[in-house]
Amino acid sequence: MDENRFSKEEVFQKLREFQKEDLTHRSGKILGSMCTCPHEVGRKAYAMFLESNLGDPGLFKGTQKLERESIELLGSILGSKNVFGHIITGGTEANIMAMRAARNCSNVQNPEIIVPKSAHFSFKKASNILCIKLKEAKLDDDYKMDLDSVMELLSDRTVAVVGVAGTTELGKIDPIPELSKICAEQEIYLHVDAAFGGFIIPFLKEIGYDLPDFDFSLDGVCSMTIDPHKMGLAPIPTGGILFRDEKYLDVMSIETPYLTEKKQSTIVGTRTGASAAATWALLKYMGKEGYTALSRNCMEITKTLAQGLKELELELITEPELNIVAFKSEKMSVDELAQKLSDKGWAVSISSYPRAIRIIVMPHIKKEHITQFLIDLKQITAN
Ligand code: PLP
User: Fold this and answer.
1) What is the pLDDT of residue 269?
2) Residue 3's pLDDT is what?
3) What gap in Å lies between CA 65 and CA 282, rounded to an integer?
4) What are the backbone dihedrals phi and psi of residue 218, each rounded to the nearest 5 degrees, phi first?
5) Mutate to test the pocket of ligand 1, among 227, 230, 241, 324 (most ligand atoms within 8 A of CB)
6) pTM for the complete prediction?
7) pLDDT over threshold 80, residue 144
8) Which three-class secondary structure state does DSSP give residue 128?
9) Which CATH number fits domain 40-284: 3.90.180.10, 3.40.190.10, 3.40.50.150, 3.40.640.10?
10) Residue 33 per-residue DSSP state
11) CATH class in words for 8-38+289-382
């Protein structure tokens, strides 16, 4: 440590210098991230609860109420208010918790989980941490979990099947009603990873988008991931894990002798209540109306982008089901195209299956950003 302390001014001056090197969502140049500018109501609520610790909730009873109400509100978006869970750090922690609950509910030796090939890499972490074998089901022609492949992989060691509602790379929705039927019949735990889709699918359905059921309205669904820090506009870190039954939390609970609550089911011990406050504030403030308008707008911009790409004769990997677009060019490799876009200041990402430029039309991306992006793309692909 330095001998000489900084003054407050020096500290913040230095911090600003560091921050200058960061990209900001506000620029509209970040096209490859599932995060966005946190809404001012979420920021303010978050800042109010910086001191609270949900790891010791007896000391923060109001914050604990906020967490309970947030879970109920998230449940009401996802087909049942009568759910149990926690506001946690994000999709990774939620998926690990769900797999832990599924494993602990069973007495199986050498447990296995079945996930689609398109599943987020957090399931690889869960598999590694929990010593569960991960089996990947094939995808069908539309990049959705193939049900025949699931049936082939099922065994008496299967402790959970995972379906994704809004895949990370292409925004596809797996056939959750069919998975629910299979899992309910065979008494297998079904987890739905709606980290991304949870905050957009329900609102698009409200305005007539023909999207499948994917939530607790289906009997077989035991747990769901939903991330307020993605399409929910909450500050990072804010994730949600919801369970149909309290028993799934109980099977993970560990005694906490010296704290105000005697048992804990979360992975993290000391944990912020600020995320719960932000979730609650945004759900109350945005309401169904606000999130529906946001979802509609993101989809309209997605359609403009997809249409523009077709006009430039770029190849769409698939018709977008949600606000994610993946494409490639015949004229150059995906890496070369990504590099040329980066040279013009665009931060796109590259999907792994199939390899393509991947754009997530998050709420910070406006029509004018897409117009400029298409102009730049035209120039790049003309040469
Ligand atoms: N699940 C899905 C479908 C995701 O797209 C992501 C992240 O993009 C995650 C889980 C992991 O979420 P986080 O990065 O918040 O841990």
Assistant:
1) 96
2) 84
3) 16
4) -95, 130
5) 227
6) 0.98
7) yes
8) helix
9) 3.40.640.10
10) -
11) alpha beta
